[in-house]
Design brief:
Helices cover 29% and strands 26% of the residues. The protein is an alpha+beta fold and 217 residues long. Strand 10, helix 6 and strand 11 form a beta-alpha-beta unit.
Length: 217
Amino acid sequence: MAKNKNPNLLKKYTQIRFLEDILTNNRLHLANPESWEDKNDVKLIEHYRSQMGIKDIRILCMNESADRYHFWKIYGQERQGVCLWFDKTIFIENECNNLNYPKTICETVQYKNKEDLQGAPPPLSSLPFLKRAQYRDEKEFRIVRTYDESIKENDDFFEFNPASLKQIFINDWLNGKELAAIKSIVKSFPEHKNIVVKQNKTLGFQEWLNAAKNHST
């Protein structure tokens, strides 16, 4: 299983069908939070938008945690999944300080219980970066962009420096032939030909199995 041992890495779980566009245009899609299943998130962000008098809001969710099976199961939808590993410093240094998008905020999510909030009410500005403590294993990092006017075409993408993309992990549901085909696609992009492409070992990590089988009697 892939581990994020470097605290300066950001991980994005997405689907293989989006990979070609990501590598072609060096961009990730900022999602509309209205479509999210977690209504705690949806309602809190809508409250923030309303109170701030913002026209619209889009969010890119990433994480800094170690691998989790449910990340692949839910975000990657099993055999559709891919995980992109970015150098955090390079990834955020341009777009989070881009004068073309002055209302882009990049922050780590804070996880709180209701008792924490009752004891110390959060400032309004923190609401897009606030989640229930039950989600803390995600160690989520969010990029939030707000809009005073209607969103223009392609204005809901976060453009990244190609040098920030360091590794790509493919889901463990695919066979060797499918994995080779995806590696070939990645290597076809000159800017990304040196990226390390591996298969995640969530479902079958031989080193772990070997260690466990070497048990005491």
